[in-house]
Design goal:
By secondary structure, the chain is α/β, with parallel strands linked by helices. It is built from 12 helices and 13 strands. It has 2 domains: 119 residues, Alpha-Beta Complex (Aspartate Aminotransferase, domain 1); 218 residues, Type I PLP-dependent aspartate aminotransferase-like (Major domain) (Aspartate Aminotransferase, domain 2, 3-Layer(aba) Sandwich), CATH 3.40.640.10. Strands 2-8-7-6-5-3-4 form a 7-stranded mixed β-sheet, with helices on both faces. It has a 4-stranded antiparallel β-sheet with strand order 9-10-13-12, covered by helices on one side.
């Protein structure tokens, strides 16, 4: 099975014969700021702990997460990124029908197929800027199915207000919902974990993206205790490495200042960057809220040609043509520093004016 994701910077640098540091990765939806130096210091100081087995079930991290969000420990699981849970839920929850709201993260489909479920696709429309209409979605639900919703969605960046989602989930008790909040920490929006968790809800949370540590792989699942126990009983021991556990413990207890800095930066810089993007010829910007921006090319060049030309200038961007519901005119950019964002705009402008 081939996995097509952004952020494949190690393989790209190897293929080009370049050091990783020479590439500007705007294809992966990571924090625009440098990784928290105090977090890196904590990891360096405790590096010797890789000589020991990690906690079997990330007990300390589960307790800290539960305490922060006023949950019972039995409602929380820690995994090797949210991907662990995306693949586990279709396998273990006895589901025979699944609905995927596209365009979205492709591993939801792969996870269903791995569980011998052929998922149905519910396509959002460009005409409505890929907004999710919950009333229309309701008419597609038969009950007893599994529905994945990424909020804000990847790659569109469109956010559905949490309170609306919570009410919708409570109204559809016979449907199982997986709400992937990987990118929610980048914006000021309340998480579903702050609400009462109904029995038909799984919430996925991630530290990997917002804290810029995707190489450590760290994610959380929150649900009712019975559903969590069903997945936990099938989980392997030591599923999270020791450095990831250390990072998670630091982030929960000391990471709020960095988190706030990321959100403040994006509140200012996203607006500026989108305005400049919108001023480019042959580029249509899809309105969104996340730390990444989906764009549509309206001229002669397609997304793959643009990706190659940008890579020639050491910029990695995401060709989004492999997302269901998108074609070869769509690409995605993830925000970086103000200086690099400005350089990206200039590079895009030069390429587009030459085609």
């Amino acid at each position: 099975m081939k996995f097509l994701h952004g952020g494949n910077i190690i393989a790209t640098a190897k293929e080009l014969g370049l050091p990783i540091s020479s590439l500007i990765d705007m294809s992966s939806n990571l924090a625009p700021l440098e990784t928290d130096p105090d977090l890196l210091k904590e990891l360096r100081e405790r590096l010797s702990e890789i000589s020991y087995l990690p906690e079997t079930d990330s007990e300390t991290l589960r307790e800290l997460f539960a305490e922060k969000y006023k949950l019972n420990t039995g409602q929380v699981l820690v995994g090797n990124g949210t991907t662990d849970f995306i693949y586990a839920i279709p396998q273990l929850m006895g589901i025979s029908r699944a609905l995927i709201i596209n365009p979205t993260y492709s591993d939801y489909v792969k996870a269903c197929r791995n569980a011998a479920i052929t998922p149905e696709s519910y396509l959002l429309s460009l005409d409505s800027d890929f907004e999710l209409n919950l009333e229309q979605l309701s008419r597609k639900l038969l009950g007893e199915e599994l529905v994945f919703i990424c909020n804000p969605n990847n790659p569109t960046g469109i956010l559905k207000p949490t309170v609306e989602l919570h009410n919708f989930i409570k109204e559809h008790k016979s449907t199982l919902f997986v709400i992937d909040e990987t990118y929610l920490p980048f914006i000021r929006e309340k998480s579903l974990v702050n609400y009462f968790i109904p029995e038909n809800l799984f919430v996925l949370r991630s530290f990997s993206k917002v804290y810029g540590i995707p190489g450590l792989r760290l994610g959380f699942l929150v649900s009712n205790e019975q559903s969590v126990a069903k997945i936990r009983n099938k989980s392997k021991p030591w599923g999270v490495n020791r450095l990831a556990q250390i990072a998670g413990e630091y982030i929960i207890t000391k990471g709020d200042q960095y988190d706030e800095a990321v959100v403040r930066f994006l509140e200012e810089e996203r607006q500026r960057f989108v305005q400049q993007l919108s001023g480019l010829s042959d580029v249509e910007v899809i309105p969104g809220n996340a730390n990444y921006i989906l764009c549509r090319l309206t001229g002669e060049i397609n997304a793959e040609e643009l990706r190659i030309k940008m890579l020639d200038q050491r910029f990695m961007i995401r060709n989004c043509s492999n997302f269901e519901g998108l074609d070869d005119t769509f690409f995605r950019l993830s925000l970086k520093s103000k200086q690099l964002n400005s350089l990206c705009i200039k590079t895009l402008q030069n390429i587009l004016t030459q085609t």
